[in-house]
Design goal:
144 residues; alpha+beta; Jelly Rolls; six-stranded antiparallel beta sheet; globular
Length: 144
C-alpha cells in the first residue's frame, strides 16, 4: 500500500510540474512589428488565412490576430457565437456581416465589432476576393 501511495504522489508531482512548465513556456507577447510580406498565406477551401499572432499578454489571457481572404460568395464558417469579443477591419472587398439577425454591408475601411456571445456571421458579397483583419481577445477569468 505504501508503494501505491508513493507512486500516486510521484505521478501527482510530475503532472503538477509539467503543467507549471507549460504555463511558463507560453511567453507573453512583446511589442512587435508584423510585416505583410512575411505573413504566409495558407490556402483554405474558401480562400486563405494568414496567422499573425496568438499569445497571452500582460493584460489578456489570449490575444489573437489573423487575416482572412474570402473568395466571392464564400463564408469562413456558419454563423456562431463565442464568449470572446472580436473586431474585424475590412482591407478590401465587400462583406455582408450578420449580427443578431441583422445584415449589413461592410466595405474597405469598415470596422465590425462582435460583442461577447452575440450570434454573428460573414459572407463575401462582392465580385472580388475580400480580405479582412480579425483581432480577438480573451480577458482573464473568461469562461471558455
Amino acid at each position: 500500500m505504501r508503494a501505491f501511495k508513493t507512486a500516486i504522489l510521484v505521478v501527482f508531482v510530475a503532472v503538477t510540474s509539467a503543467t507549471a512548465t507549460l504555463a511558463v513556456d507560453k511567453q507573453l507577447m512583446r511589442s512587435s512589428v508584423f510585416e505583410w510580406e512575411h505573413l504566409d498565406a495558407k490556402a483554405t477551401k474558401t480562400g486563405a488565412v494568414r496567422s499573425v499572432f496568438r499569445a497571452p499578454t500582460a493584460r489578456l489571457d489570449e490575444f489573437e490576430m489573423h487575416i482572412t481572404t474570402l473568395n466571392p460568395g464564400e463564408s469562413p464558417h456558419a454563423p456562431h457565437q463565442h464568449i470572446d469579443e472580436e473586431m474585424m477591419i475590412v482591407k478590401e472587398g465587400v462583406l455582408e456581416t450578420t449580427q443578431d439577425g441583422v445584415a449589413r454591408r461592410a466595405g474597405p475601411g469598415a470596422i465590425n465589432f462582435q460583442a461577447s456571445n452575440a450570434m454573428h456571421g460573414l459572407r463575401n458579397v462582392g465580385e472580388t476576393p475580400a480580405t479582412y483583419y480579425v483581432i480577438k481577445w480573451t480577458v482573464p477569468g473568461a469562461q471558455k
